[in-house]
User: What shape does this take?
Amino acid sequence: METGHSEAALKHLVEARKAAPEQTRYHPEARESAEKPRTHIPSLCWVARPGDVRRCTEHEEHDGDHYHAYSRTFWPRRAGETQ
Assistant: This one.
């Protein structure tokens, strides 16, 4: 099978994975760590403005209208709207 990589490069990758498997995405414990509870980090609301590419740049639990800081535009919150 042609991969476009030289034999030396492929050999180096195999040896690197054998030497430090914990640093590869194929490590068996990687799946276990993904199942641990995550710490909540406050973020942006990021709701898209209807018919536009702009998104709300307020904090995620803000009250009132959505706001895009760079263009200074507001739009109303719709009923039942979620992130």
Notes: The chain is about 25% helix and 5% strand. The radius of gyration is 23 Å.
